[in-house]
């Protein structure tokens, strides 16, 4: 039997344990897996592009456990009543190849993206950071905010979105949780004086959501929304002014902000910062940029974290046909009466 965590039970877990507590634990899983980065199979995710969006498969394995996530990215979906991003994922036993855990991952992706942003910011942002500008107030935004509060204690948010209803929704969700929300009329207004800038917009276009003149020295940029070929958020000049940290360079060069740059553009692999093989922030004035696209190892960590924390919320499902005699698959159907 395969253990299954569905949407109601994923939501139950998050309500029971709380987003920030889960993000703190998930960050530990991520940190463990990033530190043993070299022991994983790694390939850029497999993408099927259409004019509507993209459907992707994200596999990885540490030779003991195999994981994959199915995820879509359809920026025009909300205008049709669908979400931009939905996902589900699987953990399998490498020993016999059987799937052992199946989970919804739309909520879990929001958690893992926030946990990854929080982990990178904890290492790269100035430790005295107090205020974050959040550009894009869609599905990921509240999770991002809670990730930064869990990691750095940030409660002061300046928010801008082209859709005023999305900003109102964010205010409604986060003010009761103790955040101080300032709604900005422009990106420039949102980022003025911010220590951290998170860009989390969805548009299948080479956008310049953030221009170089709006980026002050010492800022940490958490660039989440540019995660697909032809879909970026940052003025390329910003990338030249700062140091760019990435998950897996072969995937980020295809999908991230650095798709705008020369194929040899220098980047730092974040796992190397965690293992002291590369330097993190070098000075107060340095601009650090996490060019986040989302990599399979983070989903592997998130699935493990969810599986370990929710034993009481999982159900067993019959996902794999499993005859008593492993060579007699036909036994499962031979007792059926002939059709007709
Ligand atoms: P969403 O559609 O729910 O929200 C996106 C928001 O961006 C919307 O409210 C929209 O009005 C706003 N927006 C669009 N263009 C804008 C602009 N120019 N300026 C300001 N606001 C703008 O999407 P979501 O689920 O929140 O995801 C946001 C982005 O993050 C998507 O592009 C998604 O693909 C990406 N994403 C990345 C990762 C990662 O690991 N890096 C993970 C999940 C999602």
Describe this structure in words.
The chain is built from eleven helices and 17 strands. With 340 residues, it is of the alpha/beta class. The strands form three sheets. The protein has an eight-stranded parallel beta sheet. It has a seven-stranded mixed beta sheet with strand order 2-3-4-5-6-1-17. A two-stranded parallel sheet has the order 11-13. A hairpin with a 4-residue loop joins strand 2 and strand 3. Helix 2 crosses helix 3 and helix 2 (19-35) packs across helix 10. The two termini are 32 Å apart. The relative contact order is 0.18.
Descriptive tags:
binds nicotinamide-adenine-dinucleotide; eight-stranded parallel beta sheet; alpha/beta; 340 residues
How many beta-strand runs?
A: 17
Q: What form results from the Cα inertia axes?
A: globular
Bound molecule kinds, no repeats: nicotinamide-adenine-dinucleotide
> Count of helices?
11
Q: Over all CA atoms, what is the radius of gyration?
A: 21 Å
Secondary-structure element sequence?
EHHEEEEEHEHEHEHEEEEHEHEHEHEH
SS strand fraction: 15-25%
State the distance separating the first and last CA atoms.
32 Å
Given as residue ranges, the uncertain stretches (5+ residues, pLDDT < 50) are none
Strand line-up in the sheet with most strands: 9-8-7-10-12-16-14-15
Largest sheet: 8 strands, parallel
Helix content: 25-40%
Structural class: alpha/beta
Q: Whole-number average pLDDT?
A: 96
């Amino acid at each position: 039997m395969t253990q299954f965590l569905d949407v109601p039970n994923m939501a139950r877990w998050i309500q029971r344990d709380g987003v920030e507590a889960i993000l703190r634990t998930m960050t530990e899983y991520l940190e463990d897996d990033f530190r043993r980065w070299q022991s994983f199979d790694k390939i850029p995710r497999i993408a099927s592009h259409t004019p509507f969006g993209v459907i992707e498969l994200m596999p990885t394995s540490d030779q003991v456990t195999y994981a994959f996530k199915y995820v879509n990215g359809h920026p025009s979906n909300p205008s049709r009543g669908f979400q931009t991003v939905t996902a589900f994922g699987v953990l399998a036993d490498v020993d016999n190849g059987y799937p052992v855990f199946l989970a919804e991952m739309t909520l879990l992706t929001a958690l893992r993206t926030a946990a990854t942003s929080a982990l990178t910011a904890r290492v790269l942002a100035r430790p005295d950071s107090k205020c974050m500008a959040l550009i894009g107030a869609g599905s990921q935004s509240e999770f991002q905010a809670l990730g930064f509060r869990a990691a750095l204690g940030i409660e002061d948010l300046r928010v801008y979105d082209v859709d005023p209803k999305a900003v109102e929704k964010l205010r409604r969700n986060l003010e009761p949780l103790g955040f101080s929300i300032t709604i900005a009329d422009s990106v420039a207004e949102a980022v003025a004086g911010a220590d951290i800038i998170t860009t989390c917009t969805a548009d299948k276009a080479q956008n310049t959501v953030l221009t170089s003149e709006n980026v002050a020295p010492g800022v940490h940029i958490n660039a989440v929304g540019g995660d697909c070929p032809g879909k970026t958020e940052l003025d390329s000049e910003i990338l030249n002014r700062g140091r760019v940290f990435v998950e897996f360079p072969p995937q980020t060069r295809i999908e991230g902000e650095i798709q705008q740059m020369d194929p040899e553009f220098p980047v730092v692999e974040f796992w190397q910062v965690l293992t002291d093989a590369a330097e993190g922030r070098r000075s107060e004035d340095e601009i650090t940029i996490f060019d986040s696209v989302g990599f399979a190892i983070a989903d592997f960590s998130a699935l493990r974290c969810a599986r370990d924390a929710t034993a009481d919320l999982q159900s067993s499902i019959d996902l794999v046909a499993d005859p008593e005699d492993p060579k007699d698959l036909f036994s499962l159907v031979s007792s059926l009466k002939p059709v007709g």
